[in-house]
Amino acid sequence: xxxxxxxxxxxxxxxxxxxxxxxxxxxxxxxxxxxxxxxxxxxxxxxxxxxxxxxxxxxxxxxxxxxxxxxxxxxxxxxxxxxxxxxxxxxxxxxxxxxxxxxxxxxxxxxxxxxxxxxxxxxxxxxxxxxxxxxxxxxxxxxxxxxxxx
Length: 150
Description:
By secondary structure, the protein is α+β, with helices and mostly antiparallel strands. It has 3 helices and 7 strands. It has one domain: Alpha-D-Glucose-1,6-Bisphosphate, Chain A, domain 4 (2-Layer Sandwich). The chain has helices spanning 14-21, 24-30, 117-149; strands at 3-10, 37-41, 52-59, 62-74, 78-85, 90-100, 103-113. The N and C termini lie far apart (37 Å).
């Protein structure tokens, strides 16, 4: 089961970073490359514990839908979401925020299982794990730009 960890330093207060990371509209702006948008569940505002959101996006030239649920929320330090329905067999995504002076260290930990057994494991090795690392890194960089512009 691949585990991807991405850490970035953001020159903004922890509360700002935390709230931007769970804001549906900001999520949409930070994933423009994949045309991600909320189409079900909570579709605007700040996500909170127990909320579900259905995302529609284009990955590998294929329009896909994925439903995620916020399972834990400890503002402003951490929140977790899991896949309820979608292309993965499963995923757990932990978003962690730690103050560092006037800055914030934001860490994504994304643990997932691909579907289709051995075929999915081969896809992980060939392209999927690298694709997900880039996706999370790109989103973090866009979130950083947004937070630092405030």
